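Regression test attached.
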Amino acid sequence: MPTMNKRSAKLVAMLLSTGAIALAMGSAVAQQAPDPAKPNPVIKARQSAFQIVAWSSGRIKANIDGQYNKDDVVKAANTIAAVANSTVAPLFPVGSDKGHGWHDTALLPDAFADSYRFRQLAITLGAEAAELAKVADGGADLPAVKAQYAKLTRTCKACHDDYRAKN
Ligand code: HEC
């Protein structure tokens, strides 16, 4: 084996470190495929997002059934609209019907098979919530607010009926 001079030794060291970077990048890419044993952060995030949606929906219902406070309804409806409009689509990467977040995912694979309809339901959720905020903010009477809230919850049910596993 020929002895290496200083220059080629340097070159080898450089190539090795580039190789090390390539390897590190390779393992970073490999890490993107979720390890089924570990909680998937995307599933965790969407389950949290739906908890926020459900909490806000409960606040609206409490207002309709009890002491009605317009501002409370507007805030809660805007929260649902913000969650629906900003985060719902990226929270459903293909293949994420398997795995767990805070608990096993309830997403059904049909959401990917019917991706157009599923997306439409997510868009409708945002639109109905925004409309509820508008109706309440405009000082509508209770029956009108109630009617719009019913439209919102019908969207929850439509999506859950087809794309969320019953437990
Ligand atoms: C576009 C479809 C869609 C709409 C619309 C929708 N959901 Fe869901 N929801 C889901 C799916 C899918 C899951 C299961 C997520 C998972 O486990 O990964 C879920 C999960 C939930 C959960 C459980 C969260 C957890 O802790 O795992 C609650 C609560 C919930 N939704 C409430 C609501 C309410 C309230 C509305 C309406 C205001 C609503 N959802 C609208 C699809 C939808």
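Expected vs. actual: identical. The chain has two domains: 1-33, 41-163.
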